[in-house]
Amino acid sequence: MKYLDEFRNPQHARQLLKAIRQRATRCWRIMDVCGGQTHNLLRNGIEQSLEGVIELIHGPGCPVCVTPAEVIDQAIELAGQPGICLMTFADMLRVPGTKTSLQAARAHGHQVRMSYSPLDAVKYAREHSDVDVVFLAVGFETTAPATALAVKQARQLRLNNFSLLTSHVRVLPAMRQIAFSPECCIDGFLAAGHVCTVTGYAEYAELAQQSGLPILITGFEPLDLLQGIRTAVDLLEQGQIDVINEYSRAVKEEGNPAANQLLTDVFEVVDQSWRGLGVLPASGLGLRKDWEEFDARHRYRLAMNASHSETKCRSGEVLQGRLKPGDCAEFGVRCHPGHPLGAPMVSSEGTCAAYYQYYSLRSDHRSSISE
Ligand code: SF4
Question: Is the minimum distance from the CB of 230 to ligand 1 under 6 angstroms?
Answer without folding.
Answer: no
